[in-house]
Amino acid sequence: MNVLWIFAHPEPRSLGGSLRDEGLRTLREEGADVRESDLYAMKWNPVVDAEDFGSAAQGGRLIVGATSKNAFVSGELSEDIRAEHEKLAWADTMVVQFPLWWYGMPAILKGWFDRVFVKGFAYGVRRPDGRTSRYGEGALAGKRAMVLLTAGAPEATIGPRGVNGEINDVLFPLQHGTLWYAGMSVLPPLTVCGADRVTPEQYDVAAEALRRRLRTLSTSDPIPFRSQNGGDYDEDLVLRDDLAPGRGGVGVHTS
Ligand SMILES: Cc1cc2nc3c(=O)[nH]c(=O)nc-3n(C[C@H](O)[C@H](O)[C@H](O)COP(=O)(O)O)c2cc1C
């Protein structure tokens, strides 16, 4: 197993940092090859600048070859992006770890996806029948991904009726809209709740849960997201009426 661990926390001595160390140690003990992108330590530039984007996106449309240095279209990607592509191409599994900040990922991690998951590398590939490969098919199909996050919210508040909502709903943009969109199989996330007040005993429980999840990374079942081209959606990519009848919301995209 080749695992790429994406770590987005500014402080290595944090709870997140300890879980990262625990995770990398566990994977190595299991015989996995592990590489890491420690975004703060790398001083990762999260901003897609004008040079990256160029004039190609004027009007929201990308025009292939319109600019020489355009990160989205030209193939002349900057070196930091190419280095991440090389790691991702090598990996069969990716762990994405971050503290939940304002219901989402820290900006540095959002900017990693913005700059690394570019057209032609992570999406924008066509099937022989002309349909676009996405949501379960695509450039990164065959790879697995798992989100590991810490959240200040207590466990009871994260659930179908908890005030913070269901974690898979909170993570829908990342798990479905990004990872699954690019073709990756997404394993259920591991969330460490109540992360601002963790006792040594609670840390041991969290670390053991992490070790268990990492030992079964290559065998555990992914979230059963529906594939775009598998027959569940009509020509307009709307879920068929007979599936999840009468229901709406993000949950209907899981079978
Ligand atoms: C800017 C910021 C935003 C946060 N937003 C949330 C949030 O939306 N939901 C939540 O449960 N916790 C939130 N928290 C709490 C963090 O998730 C928590 O402090 C962190 O996971 C603890 O792990 P650490 O000690 O490794 O940083 C936020 C913390 C910060 C600093």
Automatic annotation (TrEMBL):
The record, for Pfam families, names: Flavodoxin_2
Record-annotated Flavodoxin-like fold domain positions: 1-212
* SUPFAM superfamilies referenced in this protein's UniProt entry, alphabetically: Flavoproteins
Per the record, GO CC terms?
cytosol
> Which InterPro entries does this chain map to?
Flavodoxin_fold, Flavoprotein-like_sf, NAD(P)H_dehydrogenase_qn
Which GO MF term does the entry hold, naming one?
Answer: NAD(P)H dehydrogenase (quinone) activity
Keywords, ordered alphabetically: Oxidoreductase
Q: Which family is annotated?
A: Belongs to the NAD(P)H dehydrogenase (quinone) family.
PANTHER family registered for this protein in UniProt: NAD P H OXIDOREDUCTASE-RELATED (PTHR10204), NAD(P)H DEHYDROGENASE [QUINONE] 1 ISOFORM 1 (PTHR10204:SF34)
What's this protein's name?
Answer: NADPH:quinone reductase
